[in-house]
Design brief:
By secondary structure, the chain is mostly helical. It has a two-stranded antiparallel sheet. α4 crosses α8. The longest helix has 36 residues. Helix content is 75%, strand content 3%.
């Protein structure tokens, strides 16, 4: 086996087809999209070289700023809730429910496999205010509070989107972190308990340090997914009311595919890519600095 892997020709033959397919499917479209940032026009009428005009428009576009602010606000809050609540559930699975957690894990994970459109319809009905109140408003009315037009204002619509996406994804992060908890040797836990570690002390000195790698992986998964949020917003609010819940992805989609401005749409996509890279690098650097300590 070592002689085979040491042969560069053999390595090229084994990896060449996969790398070629990956390049054509993944790298190729990225390069084409980057090239389109220097052009304006449509596929029907042709493209004209525009230089840096798309980048100048990006720097002065107020809607890009609004969409960027919404995207970062949504990504930060949703990521924290997904990972923290998922971590809490994973701790419950491991240290409280233990072997009996299989049914609960399955139940909590179930929303992950539901179609986004179905979840969007479900939540639009739960938080409906007209023509009849949904379950959320019915509960508020029953406790003596007035109903709220949840999807009629930007702030409340943002809350509904966050609740929906946390509900959809919390089961995934709970199972992901639970797999990290399973890797902690049982003898380490027992030794810590013999030494008097209980509750918060056990969590702080044993559990948390042992699960930092899977925790950082969860943050990377979550932040990259939430920064690129599209389907849930599209299904629930379609960016409304107005453009108050429009993320960068939805603005990019409308610019490129509804208004056929592929050059400017590709420029927005490049901005989104750079943001994802910066966030991922920041998390990786934080992980490395924590490990060196």
């Amino acid at each position: 086996m070592r002689s085979v892997l040491a042969d560069r020709k053999t390595i090229f033959i084994l990896l060449g087809p996969a790398l070629l397919i990956y390049t054509l499917i993944m790298v190729g479209p990225v390069l084409v999209s980057f090239g389109l940032t220097f052009f304006e026009g449509t596929a029907l009428y042709g493209f004209d070289f525009a230089g840096l005009s798309n980048y100048l428009e990006l720097a002065t576009d107020q809607q890009v700023r609004d969409a960027l602010f919404f995207t970062l606000k949504y990504a930060l809050l949703t990521t924290i809730l997904q990972v923290v609540l998922g971590y809490g559930l994973a701790l419950i699975y491991q240290f409280m429910l233990k072997r009996s957690s299989v049914f609960i894990r399955t139940l909590v994970f179930f929303p992950v496999v539901l179609p986004t459109v179905a979840v969007g319809i479900l939540y639009s009905k739960l938080f409906q205010s007209a023509p009849v109140d949904g379950l959320a408003n019915e509960l508020l009315v029953n406790v003596g509070l007035g109903g709220i037009d949840w999807l009629g204002a930007g702030d409340t619509a943002f809350v509904v989107i966050v609740i929906m996406d946390v509900w959809r994804s919390i089961g995934f992060y709970a199972v992901l972190i639970f797999s990290g908890l399973l890797d902690i040797p049982e003898d380490i836990i027992e030794s810590a308990r013999i030494d008097g570690a209980r509750g918060v002390s056990l969590f702080r000195h044993i559990v948390l340090p042992s699960t930092l790698p899977i925790l950082f992986a969860s943050f990377i998964f979550s932040i990259n997914g939430t920064v690129k949020v599209f389907d849930s917003v599209f299904a629930l609010t379609n960016g409304g009311p107005g453009t108050s819940t429009t993320p960068l992805t939805l603005y990019m989609y409308r610019t490129a595919f509804q208004y056929s401005d592929y050059g400017y749409g590709s420029t927005i996509a490049l901005l989104l890519t750079i943001i994802c890279l910066i966030i991922t690098l920041f998390i990786f650097r934080s992980s490395r600095s924590d490990n060196t300590r």
